[in-house]
Write a structure and sequence with these properties.
Strand content: under 5%
Structural class: mainly alpha
Distance between the termini: 30 Å
Order of helices and strands: HHHHHH
Radius of gyration: 19 Å
Helix content: 55-70%
Number of helices: 6
Shape: globular
Number of strands: 0
Largest sheet: none
Length: 158
């Protein structure tokens, strides 16, 4: 199967990001490139290519904003984002007295980012939130890979 080149997305934001990546030593000294992150992002780019091949171009409405409700009726996106932020802070120990939320998990972190994105109706801010969702999913994948590598090194089945 031919995969799409992730560097030819046709958007100014994507072009800026690619240029910043290639010129990162001078453009953004705080960004440290890791081979592992690059591999994970390559997997993400391949999956995007598979999605395009399977579904074709997708141009759905965003369906986001603080007043958008989830179909299952648990509340508006803005309210859910606030609840997820509170649950994440409680699990992280930043809200004393609410330790019943259990330990901080990737689920907390990712869902907080997802619902913050879903609560956003400004396209530029939504884009920023979605980059945060992608980054959070990427770091979670990297954490899983580290865990699996450690188990393999110990000879423990996954």
């Amino acid at each position: 199967m031919n995969y799409l080149n992730p560097h030819t997305t046709g958007t100014d934001h994507a072009t800026e990001a690619v240029n910043a990546w290639h010129n990162r030593d001078t453009a953004d000294p705080d960004v440290e490139r890791t081979d592992h992150t690059a591999r994970v992002l390559y997997e993400v780019a391949r999956e995007r290519s598979r999605q395009d091949a399977k579904f074709g171009p997708q141009n759905h409405p965003d369906g986001t904003g603080p007043r958008q409700a989830i179909a299952i009726g648990i509340g508006h996106m803005g309210e859910i984002a606030d609840q997820m932020r509170r649950a994440t802070n409680a699990a992280a120990g930043r809200l004393p007295g609410l330790e019943h939320h259990g330990p901080l998990t990737w689920r907390h972190v990712l869902l907080e980012e997802v619902f913050e994105a879903l609560a956003e109706d400004d396209p530029a801010k939504l884009r920023t939130e979605l980059v945060q969702v992608a980054a959070t999913a990427t770091v979670w994948i990297e954490a899983i890979d580290r865990r699996l590598a450690k188990l393999a090194a110990e000879g423990t089945p996954a």
